[in-house]
Automatic annotation (TrEMBL):
InterPro entries: PhaF_PhaI
Organism encoding this protein: Usitatibacter palustris
Composition skew (Basic residues), residue ranges: 1-12, 139-152
Superkingdom of this protein's organism: Bacteria
Matching NCBIfam families: PHA_granule_1 (TIGR01837)
Region: Disordered, residue numbers: 1-23, 129-152
Protein name: Poly(Hydroxyalkanoate) granule-associated protein
Name of a matching Pfam family: Phasin
């Protein structure tokens, strides 16, 4: 079965006589607190902005210092690597030249040293020939070039 709900009469609470006035005062205080917060945020906002600008400048200087140091480190490593590579390249070139010289020696090709030694021997032989022949021998005269007649 359905039960009946009892209806209660709502009675208006007793309101103090100054209630509308206290609401107005409270609203006024809230308004003033908001204005005060706005003014403080505005004045401290400028200070905060200046503080942030100073902090940014400080960080920019630090970042520049760190970047410069990193650049110097990279430059030093690149220079060291280039020097090492140059040394390795020179060594590789020397090994290559030695192997080519050995191969040419096996084939019987004369080296610069051999040619220089032969040139010295030829000079010595020429000197000994001059001393044996008396050294007064004149060089043979050059032949005159044959003259041609111009065609007409």
């Amino acid at each position: 079965m359905a039960s009946k709900t009892k209806s209660r009469k709502r009675t208006a609470r007793a309101t103090p006589e100054g209630f509308p006035q206290s609401v107005a005062e409270s609203a006024q205080k809230i308004w003033l607190a908001g204005l005060g917060a706005f003014a403080r945020a505005r004045s401290e906002g400028d200070k905060m902005f200046e503080l942030l600008v100073e902090r940014g400048q400080s960080l920019r200087g630090q970042a520049r210092t760190v970047a410069d140091q990193a650049f110097k480190n990279v430059r030093a490593q690149a220079d060291a690597t280039a020097a090492t590579a140059a040394g390795k390249w020179d060594k590789l070139e020397q090994v290559f030249e030695e192997r080519v010289a050995r191969s040419l020696g096996r084939l019987g090709v004369l080296t610069n040293k051999d040619i220089d030694a032969l040139a010295k021997q030829v000079e010595q032989l020429n000197a000994s020939l001059k001393s044996l022949s008396g050294g007064s021998r004149k060089a043979p005269a050059k032949k005159k070039a044959a003259t041609r007649k111009a065609r007409k």
